[in-house]
Write a structure and sequence with these properties.
10-stranded mixed beta sheet; alpha+beta; 6 helices; about 240 residues
Length: about 240
């Protein structure tokens, strides 16, 4: 079966570049040789943004590189939402790392480009944005029925896009805690327990150092720390090593 990596090799060769090195030398500002090699070897998935960039440089359709959609020649490189919808795919943005107890400084002027990956559309919420978080630490290594381990990738729905869904006990969510006027932020994954007067966000861990976050239903920040649910975890992914 022909894969995206195979079609990428084809469009690169058809554009007149015998090797990834030749292509990288021709477009030093646009192509990283090692990244292109990884894409062509299949060691790294080709994101929507990368496919569009390769399509622009090599004169091919991004949709053809990713899905074999239509002819290889360029008739407009942008991968349209219509194309993605037809093949049951959507774009997910890799938002960052979730790690309990790790407050990181929020850089409002961070100019790094977001990483995008292709994901199946969520059957229940097809129009909600999908956010992807990489898990670090052991705060959910005892979750049942499926633990979440360091290195797992969590596919989530942006909660503001499904805010009409009431949070219920047992849901697994991404919690954001902010402090120092929002200059520092912690993202962590927790399982929620809802009570009439409070919500409790529990780690499910074999490590006793991890403690629950308890939020009283008074909308008051606790000692300058604000807590909010930013995403609902829907799937857990983990690429096996050796590929």
């Amino acid at each position: 079966m022909e894969l995206p990596k195979d079609r990428l090799k084809q469009v690169r060769a058809a554009a007149g570049y015998e090797s990834p090195t030749d292509a990288a030398n021709a477009f030093p500002r646009d192509i990283n040789k090692n990244t292109l090699i990884s894409h062509e070897n299949g060691n790294r998935p080709i994101s929507r943004k990368a496919a569009e960039k390769y399509g622009e440089l090599f004169g091919a359709k991004a949709g053809w590189i990713l899905f074999g959609d239509g002819p290889g020649e360029d008739t407009g490189t942008a991968l349209s939402d219509v194309t993605l919808s037809r093949v049951g795919m959507t774009v997910g943005r890799v938002a960052g790392v979730v790690e309990a107890g790790a407050f990181r400084e929020v850089d409002e002027f961070d100019q790094s480009e977001p990483i995008e990956i292709m994901l199946p559309r969520d059957e229940k919420f097809p129009n909600a944005r999908q956010l992807v978080f990489d898990c670090a630490g052991d705060s959910m290594n005892d979750l049942r029925p499926r633990p979440i381990f360091p290195g797992d990738r969590l596919v989530c729905l942006a909660y503001e896009d499904i805010g009409h869904i009431e949070l219920r006990s047992g849901m697994v969510v991404i919690v954001q805690r902010s402090r120092d006027g929002g200059h520092f932020r912690e993202w962590s994954v927790k399982q929620i327990e809802v009570f009439p007067d409070r919500a409790e966000f529990h780690p499910r861990s074999t490590n006793p150092k991890h403690k629950p976050i308890i939020v009283e239903h008074d909308d008051e920040a606790d000692e300058g720390v604000t807590v909010e649910v930013i995403a609902l975890v829907r799937r857990v992914m983990n690429d096996l090593p050796g590929f």
